[in-house]
Fold:
Amino acid sequence: MEKQTPHELILRTLKEKSSMKQDVYVNTLNAFKVMKTTAKSIAAELKKEMSAADKRVVIEFKEKGEFEFELRVAGDLLIFAMHTNVFDFDKSHQLWKSSYVKEDQARAFCGIINIYNFLNDSFTYNRVNDLGYVIGRVFINKENHYFAEGKRQLGFLYNDFIHSVIDEAAIKAIVESSILYCLNFDLFTPPFDAIKEVSVLDMQTASESMQIKTGKRLGFRFQADSDGID
Structure:
């Protein structure tokens, strides 16, 4: 086989890898658009039903741009954000053990949609020191196959990368699982020793930005809440 020149190698890589990454990006963006529409629809349905039951419970969808949207459910704020880059996996990742990826290593390149959980009050009252958590990550490849890493149902319901193809039904299930997790992931009072010392500055600025940290598991290891992200 004739040795390729650097120019030919560059062109080959662009054709093979860069074009593939464009496919992954388009698939991830299309899935995110469906996720956005689905979350908006879920929010509208929940809002209508909760208005009849208890008007104090706020359900709200908010678009934050092409790659981000928010879903407020009562006191929780879910933030869905698509990363604009495409990622490979470290060779130690269990994904590389599957026949699906061994047959075609390009299948390991994925786009990512991150799902975060914050307390809504953290943003309402500008509590910039409050903590949020990544509760899930959805990975999508060039063939629209997907899997999710995350907490509880997000971690074990959506991990069949070989057979699972992202579609509207799968996206709806992921959004609903995220909401359920947040609603069942309650705010714990932090250990006394974690808050017994408060600075004068903390108290002086508390009314403006609440510098005293709040988080659902502040003072505890979040991983201990359930099975951690693998």
